[in-house]
Each structure stands twice: as structure tokens, then as C-alpha cells.
Amino acid sequence: xxxxxxxxxxxxxxxxxxxxxxxxxxxxxxxxxxxxxxxxxxxxxxxxxxxxxxxxxxxxxxxxxxxxxxxxxxxxxxxxxxxxxxxxxxxxxxxxxxxxxxxxxxxxxxxxxxxxxxxxxxxxxxxxxxxxxxxxxxxxxxxxxxxxxxxxxxxxxxxxxxxxxxxxxxxxxxxxxxxxxxxxxxxxxxxxxxxxxxxxxxxxxxxxxxxxxxxxxxxxxxxxxxxxxxxxxxxxxxxxxxxxxxxxxxxxxxxxxxxxxxxxxxxxxxxxxxxxxxxxxxxxxxxxxxxxxxxxxxxxxxxxxxxxxxxxxxxxxxxxxxxxxxxxxxxxxxxxxxxxxxxxxxxxxxxxxxxxxxxxxxxxxxxxxxxxxxxxxxxxxxxxxxxxxxx
Length: 391
Description:
The protein is of the alpha/beta class. Helices cover 45% and strands 8% of the residues.
């Protein structure tokens, strides 16, 4: 075993106790969601499912489009990419000011806010963390999760697309091998569980990815569709094991990958547009009842040979509750709205998706009296999260 990275040791602090659930708060949140479901139009409900991108130095045309998507269409979520924190927070605050309902903001912070913002201290990558042994590792990962959760909550970010729970058999033979805790599914499940609980105990929604397990591929789904030829016995004994543990322990979200697994869906379509995967395997067999989202829908693993409208509607129909980083957003919202309004697609299906998204927002306190989505005192928050280097 290698010693724990000094960087992690410096960054970790003592964790507080797990928050008990509050039945009265849950009842209040359900009442808030019920009221909103009555108030929102079909068009507004559909828009709540879309997660748009805040990128570095967007063009004026992009800014105008995004402002319109929030102000006029009611898009429900944002994902933050990499760049200086100040301009991002300024843009986030502006977009929140346009929203009818507070925006659910997400990011990829697998090794902390530093994965997106250089102003923060980075934690070690998951493969390094996976080399810590025993219960000590789980305690440290839990504490790391608490700290990462506080970093993100200070920035108004309530979803972390982490942890990665891929079981990677050859981690050093892959460009993304550092994102996997281990080649042992039990280790991956234990370490990912500890990290997840730390974040969720801080009120940050964890998202296990990349379902049903991307570790067996050497093809990057950003550029082409990976095909995994494992049989079901191999899937059940390896890739699905850590996901099942996190499902059983209450992970809020699961991200489905753009990869073909004929043992799950013989048609060969990506898992991200496969009802056999999302509804059959994930929901019915593994019992997940949280929010399902796919990897970014512009990735070539699903986008190749399909228009953005085709991808967005296929993801929706296959079972995803949210649509991440889509193109042709207005066209897609209008098309899904029309299909639901005319009875081609069931309203009950839409309502089930929207209710899950609104429940995330309600549990985060977005609809409580006095909630303020604006990020304030940014410099102080960054300074507190990143202590000065020792002399």
C-alpha cells in the first residue's frame, strides 16, 4: 500500500454526523412538488428535463439563446464546465435570476471542485484513492465526500456527476483508467459508497456512472460506440456489482453510458437509448427508483448517424429522466411537448420524470421561504475552502 497523498491529508477535515431524515420536511417537500405539478404546463414540464451547458467564454449568440431557454422555455438545469470561477459564478447568478424555478446546477467534480475550477485544491484521482486499504480508506473517502460536498454547495452546485463506479480491469492501459477505484468490484462498491454518502450527507446529489459499467472498454464513447461482449453472468458478477450496492444505499442519480451490450439489448443500440437497459435492467431488475440521466447526448457514441432531435427524443423515450448537454433544445422541447399534448406519448410518463427532478429541487430547499439561489461572498468561500500553503 502506498501512503495517502499529502494533498488529501491536508485537505480532509473531521466530518459531522449523518443528518437524520425529517418526515415533516419530506411532507412539506411533497406538497411543494404537488402544487408545482398542478401549475406547470406540459411545455414547462418538458423543459425541466433539459440540462444545458455553461462553457468558458460563450459567444454572444450562445448567451442570448441560453437566456431565452431559461426565461422563455423554463429549462431546468445547468452543467458547469472548466474555467475561471469568477465568470462562471457571475453567469450562474444571471441565469438563476431569469429562471421561474431555481436551476439545478451540476458539474463533474470527481476529484473535487478543482476538476472544474483551478482556484480549489485537487484531491487525488480515484485510482490513487483505490490504493488505500481497509476501513481507513472508507473513512477517508467519506470525509472527502463531505468536503467536496461543502465546496460545491458553497457554489450553488447541488449535483456532482460522481463517483465513477466502473470496474476497470486494466486501469493503466486506458486513458481514463485513473477514474476507476479498482479492478475488484467489491472494492469499487465500498469506496464509491463511502464517497457517495459523504456528498449526500452534505446535501449534494451523487450520480453513479457510467452504467452499466464502462470499465471493460478501450473505446472512447466521445468518438465512437463501444461494444461490450460480456455475457450476463460476467455483467452480474463484475460491472453491475458496485451499482447495485449504491442503489441499495440510496444514490440519488445514475448516469447511463453510450455503449452497446448485446447481452442486455440484442438490437445493439447504445444503452442510453435502450429501454431494456434503463427500464428493464436498471429499474425493474436492480430496483433503482431515483433519477436516471445519460452521458452527454452530443457524444458520438449515441449521436453518430442521428440528428440531435432524434437523439433527444430517443433518450427521453428510452427512460432517461434528464437530457444532458443537448443540441436543438427548443426544437426538441417543442416536439416532445407536442407528442405528449396530442396523446402520442403518455402524460403519466412525463409527469413521473418531472416529479423526480422537482423532488431533487425541493429536498435541496429550492422552494422553501427565504431560499436564495445567488452565490455571494465568493472570494471568502474560495479562501475558506483552500487554506494557504504552509510557509
